[in-house]
User: Which sequence fits this backbone?
C-alpha cells in the first residue's frame, strides 16, 4: 500500500492518534495547508495550488519544496488538485489532514462530499483534524478502532438502504435512512464498532478525543 497525506488549510490539532495516522506517509501540501507540516513533523515532497492563502513566511520557510502552481481561475480546489496528484503518484490510501474548520465552510463540506464520491469509486480516504475524524461510507462493511465511548454520527448524503450499526449505544439493523435524517447523529461506541451498508452514500464522523462514560 502507498499512503499519502494531503495537508489542507483547515484546523489541525496534533494528537497521538493523528501522528500515528500520518506516520510513514508521503506528503503533499495544498496551498496554505503547508502551515501544518512543522507541527506534524512532516516535509511535503510537493506543494500545489494557486498560492493565494500562503504567506511570505511560508514561502521562505519552504522555498526548497518543489511547487506546482495553478492559476486562481481554475475548475478545481487546491485540495482536489492535490488529491488527483496523489492518485497519479500511486496512492492507495489518502489522509486529508486539515479537512475541517478554517474560514471556508464550503471547503469543509466539499472535502466531506468529495471524499465520499471518491470512496464510491473504490478509493480509501480518511479525513482528520486530530480532534475529528471522518470515514466515507458506501456499499460495504467497515470496522473501526475507536475507544469505548467515542462519540460518532453518520450523516447521509443520499437515501441509505440496509444500514447496520453494531457495537454502539444505539445499534441499528437493516435500517432505511432518508437524506437529511438526524436519526444517526450523536451515537457512541460500545464495544467494537462495525457498520455495514447495502446501498447509498454517507460519512461517519467521530470525535476520538470526546469519550463518554457508558
Assistant:
Amino acid at each position: 500500500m502507498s499512503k499519502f497525506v494531503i495537508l489542507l488549510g483547515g484546523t489541525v490539532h496534533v494528537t497521538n492518534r493523528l501522528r500515528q495516522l500520518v506516520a510513514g506517509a508521503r506528503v503533499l501540501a495544498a496551498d496554505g495547508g503547508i502551515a501544518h507540516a512543522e507541527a506534524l513533523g512532516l516535509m511535503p515532497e510537493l506543494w500545489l495550488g494557486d498560492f493565494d492563502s500562503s504567506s511570505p513566511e511560508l514561502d521562505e520557510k519552504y522555498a526548497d519544496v518543489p511547487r506546482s502552481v495553478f492559476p486562481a481561475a481554475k475548475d478545481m480546489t487546491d485540495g482536489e488538485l492535490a488529491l488527483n496528484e496523489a492518485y497519479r503518484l500511486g496512492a492507495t490510501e489518502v489522509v486529508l489532514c486539515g479537512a475541517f474548520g478554517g474560514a471556508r465552510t464550503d471547503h469543509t463540506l466539499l472535502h466531506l462530499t468529495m471524499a465520499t464520491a471518491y470512496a464510491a469509486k473504490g478509493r480509501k480516504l480518511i479525513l482528520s483534524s486530530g480532534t475529528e475524524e471522518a470515514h466515507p461510507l458506501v456499499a460495504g462493511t467497515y470496522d473501526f478502532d475507536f475507544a469505548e465511548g467515542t462519540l460518532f454520527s453518520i450523516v447521509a448524503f443520499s437515501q441509505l438502504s440496509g444500514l447496520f450499526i453494531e457495537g454502539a449505544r444505539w445499534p441499528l439493523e437493516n435500517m432505511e435512512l432518508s437524506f437529511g435524517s438526524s436519526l444517526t447523529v450523536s451515537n457512541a461506541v460500545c464495544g467494537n464498532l462495525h457498520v455495514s451498508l447495502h446501498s447509498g452514500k454517507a460519512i461517519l464522523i467521530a470525535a476520538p478525543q470526546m469519550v463518554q462514560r457508558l
